[in-house]
Amino acid sequence: MASDQGIVPLPSIHLSDAAQHALRDALAQGGGGWLRLKIDAHFAHELLFEPGAEDDLLVETAGISLLLDPASAGRADGLAIDFVQGLRGAGFSFDNPNQPGRAPRIKLRRDCAASLIPRGERLLLAQGEPVVVTQALGGSFTVRTANGQLARIAGRDADALGLDAEPEPAQADEPAAVDAAALLGRVFEQLRSVYDPEIPINVVDLGLIYQCQVQPLEDGGQRIEIKMSMTAPGCGMGDLLKEEARAKVQALAGVSEVEIELVWEPPWDQSRMSEAAQLQLGLL
Fold this sequence. Notes:
Elements: E1 13-15, H1 17-30, E2 35-39, E3 45-48, E4 57-61, E5 64-68, H2 70-73, E6 79-86, E7 89-95, E8 105-107, E9 112-116, E10 122-125, E11 130-137, E12 140-144, E13 150-153, H3 180-191, E14 209-216, E15 222-228, H4 238-250, E16 255-262, H5 275-280
Parallel strand pairs: 1-6, 2-5, 15-16
Antiparallel strand pairs: 2-3, 4-5, 6-7, 8-11, 9-10, 9-13, 11-12, 12-13, 14-15
């Protein structure tokens, strides 16, 4: 390993809580004292059990030792490593601000409320904090924060990102008569504009809508009853997505009431996804 690291600029690397836990487990099982982090010229990232070399740099982060060769170290500053459970299984994810073509960091123009993904906990992002927009679909934004966390920012707070907000859904004028089948089609159109904050797929194509019915009311209006689920039991984002779906469906002409129930039976699985969604995620 390099004998005098004091004159070498060491990269700053952030490990999420989940990544720290997974790496400690790997080190305990592998019996090693460190892991090698390789980042090639195409910004492919690998964590390996390999012996040290004379010119390696040693980076200590959260009590975990990472070895990097000089080329990898030059590509690693600001790297955020997470360990995620996704549709394709569990694994490490690498958010590297040095990767060419990567979305630029944005400094928040004001304090901004957000929700942590996937737990749904509320937090306040401070003015001037750098974030990277990783997804902008359905009027909301998923960002990666300076410490590597994913958070969801509502569309009404787009100005904090320096972006234009989509107009809030407005209640349309009710037509004289409502065709239930046509209304059901419009409901699904609205639901297709509600996206999972981690996966660029809408809740309909993900197969999260278990039931959707139109019920006529005595006053001539229509009640929409929806049963929807999440990709994981107890997902903290459920209430946020439920409210977003409710607001968008409520804005439809002819809709007087909307009731959305989160259900967990039968459990969601990948077979419920549309073929288009599976193709988009490389599952077919």
